[in-house]
Amino acid sequence: MSAQVFRGIGVSPGIAVGKALVVEVRRPRIKRERVDPARLPLEISRLRQALEASRRQILEIQERIATEVGPQYARIFDAHLLILEDRWLVEEASAIIQAQGVNAEYALQEVLEPVRQAFSRVEDGYLRERRTDVDDVGDRVLRNLLGQRGSVHVEGMRGEAIVFAHDLSPSDTAQLHRDAVLGLVTETGGRTSHSAIMARSLEIPAVVGAEEICAHVVNHETVILDGTEGLVILAPDRETLARYHARKQQLEYVGRALDKLGALPAETQDGYRVRVTANIEFPEELPAVQAHGAEGVGLYRTEFLYLNRPDLPGEEEHFAVYRAVAAEMHPRPTVIRTLDFGGDKLASAIQLAAEENPSLGLRAIRLCLHRPDIFRPQLRAILRASAFGALRIMYPMISGVAELRAANAILEDVKAELRRQGIAFDPAIQVGAMIETPSAAVTADLLAREVDFFSVGTNDLIQYSLAIDRINEQVAYLYEPLHPAVLRMLRGVVSAAHNEGIWISMCGEMASDPLHGLLLVGLGFDELSMTPGAIPLMKRIIRSVTYGQAAEVAQRLFGCATAQEVERLLLLEMRARFPEYFAGDALPGAEKRPGFP
Fold first, then answer.
1. Catalytic residue chosen out of the listed positions 80, 194, 318, 516
2. DSSP code string of 518-535
3. Selecting from 3.50.30.10, 3.50.50.60, 3.40.50.150, 3.40.190.10, what CATH number does the domain 4-26+152-239 have?
4. Where in the chain are the domains?
5. Rounded Cα–Cα distance for residues 364 and 375 (Å)
6. Is 483 a catalytic residue?
7. What confidence tens digit (pLDDT) does each residue in 232-260 have?
8. Helix (H), strand (E) at residue 223
9. What is the per-residue pLDDT across 297-332, written as a single tens digit (0 to 9) for each?
10. Three-class SS state of 251
């Protein structure tokens, strides 16, 4: 059999060479069965027992992950517990059992299916992938009702298996860690799926979105998995095997060298200082932030407080979380982004009309201005927590000065309210705006007069500027961070910020890609905020050049007419300067750049 190369999305870096094993994740098959009326109470009892058994199993998994990997990753299973402990679930399923006289398995499936479908319709990739949580919990309860064992097991190949599956749940991934697999490959999934997060936390190389690969895999045959570049090679020849074994050893050596950079500043050889900070979603990620040498938190997403619950978080809940983060990071700063949700992506407690295009609808700062009853408690909590550490406030999806002034007016009113109540807060707390709409980029000079800092959210800025739906598979290949229009926009925003004497950060995915390091330094960004694991390599890049060299590279890129030309020129520059990181025939993060080279 000749070698076959498949390309997917590299979601957990590293290279694995091992034996292929295709696992079939069998979903329980459920039939609708009539139940004698006298036995209906027994069916409800079976349901409650299965829910409790599932809860115990999740707690055991959570405890093991917390011990072996860290509590921040055990939080992934909090959503599962919330679903299992929701009284609505047992009450709705029990009502169906009683009303229709059916078995517990069927009733449970009837309750969960509309929830699954609702998540499937959500446009936001992160939230859409939360359907996996519902599937995982539902399947676990069903298996307990049916007396079946777990869905995935690796037997007889401990320590040498690279597992292939159509899809994997977080529980499946945790089980595979126990079986000491070398790597994971799935046909579905994305960067924000919980199985991807689990793979990264367990430091298992993983590739997702490798479409239809399972049909081509031969069990127990040698395969290569490159989680850095998103490649899977089936039946490699000797030369390819030797090359990847050497590459694997090189990456391990480089990784050990990068670990030593954690405590060093991100400073060019001629003294230009760039703050390198981290993006986080949960407070439990802070140990990893500190371990990788972050100089603060450049983006703290707060949406997790609103997920998987029927009510809204109150001010005290917000305050407790923000105070803990501020205290742990002090004196390093933490930038808290206010609520960034859209109309079809919220807790059920927020009743909003359905929208045909939520990405351009009532979301982010627009929603907060529309619903000050949601916005004000969060602002009060952030301000109160600012007395315990260096917190900063950042508004998402600002489109113009009027919107920014409206948000600041509410903030000033909240400050006045706290003063009247004698509640302490930092009166000089910095306030910033995210630049992620073309209108904000074009009017950056006007916005810069109203705030203390900018943070460029490249994910949406690129999407809106290029009119590309980045989760639409038909056009996602046109999502080009290095498009000349994007580069010109970034240069203009940096210039506008510095002309008004404010600092500017980038917190989108573009800042996490080492290929962009020289460009972003050369454009003059004061801060780059990224996934914690990307920090050591970014520090290495920044510390290896002068600011003048980076600015010269950036200037040359503006002579290119297409994203492909920019990318090729930038890749050649990075390969020449950092061959140990940019060696090979494919681009780093190649799944984002189809067709290269």
1. 194
2. HHHHHHT-SEEEE-GGGH
3. 3.50.30.10
4. 4-26+152-239, 37-146
5. 10
6. no
7. 999 999 999 999 988 888 777 777 777 77
8. strand 222-226
9. 999 999 878 765 667 889 999 999 999 999 999 999
10. helix
